[in-house]
Amino acid sequence: MAIRNAGIDGNPATVTDPAWTPLLTTPNHPEYPAAHGCLTGSEAEVLATVADPYRSGFAIRGSADGTTDNWTATQRFERPDDLQGQIVNARVWAGLHYRGSVRAGVQVGTAVARWTLSRFFAPAPPRDCRRHDEHPNTGGRS
Predict the structure, then answer these.
(1) H-only helix segments in the chain
(2) What is the pTM of this model?
(3) How far apart are the first and last CA of the chain?
(4) Which regions of 19-122 does DSSP assign to beta strands (E)?
């Protein structure tokens, strides 16, 4: 409805399109923040941190027809930001969310991933190279 009613939003930069219809039936789920944005934001942050996709990009397998029975579509992204941008546009074009809601979801997901990565996926401490029979908890016994 936002695109059809853009002329009444008080913003002269928006354009009304009374014939616009969403690509999908708008589901009955929370609008803000967009959950898909949260998921994709965290996924992109993990990829950026762990896999270093800036060097070679990355690919995500998916379904061309929206089912889990047909995992034939593979899409390549050069940067995590490209993935985030696509999910923002896709959720808006499908008529599922407002752009600000998906962007807010991406921010939430990114923040959660950063917090989690910094606390639970920190580098391991140096390994103790002593022999097993010298372990302090065994009293020198193996």
Answers:
(1) 35-46, 53-56, 80-93, 99-120
(2) 0.68
(3) 72
(4) 58-62, 73-77
